[in-house]
Design brief:
Elements (H helix, E strand, L loop, with lengths): L2 H17 L10 H26 L3 H20 L2
Helix pairs in contact: 2-3
Length: 80
């Protein structure tokens, strides 16, 4: 049964909510929401590149993925 997977999803959602700023009654601005979405998008792209890099065997493909990873790291660092 998928119960274990379901509980892990709920657990990760609870952790994400706890990690979010605990500003009572204050909603994030549109700019803050856009930054959060951009960061999530970049982190997802970084995860995909890392996964592809782990499976890559061709030297030039690995070099391209390493460059992409470096670029994504720079963009993520620039969001702070």
């Amino acid at each position: 049964m998928a119960r274990g997977w379901e509980s892990k999803s709920v657990e990760s959602q609870i952790e994400a909510a706890a990690a979010a700023p605990a500003k009572a009654g204050v909603r994030p601005t549109a700019e803050e929401l856009a930054r959060q979405r951009e960061r999530q998008s970049l982190e997802l792209a970084r995860t995909k590149v890392q996964r592809d890099l782990a499976a890559a065997t061709h030297v030039r493909h690995r070099a391209m993925l390493e460059a992409a990873l470096k670029h994504l790291d720079g963009q993520i660092a620039g969001l702070h």
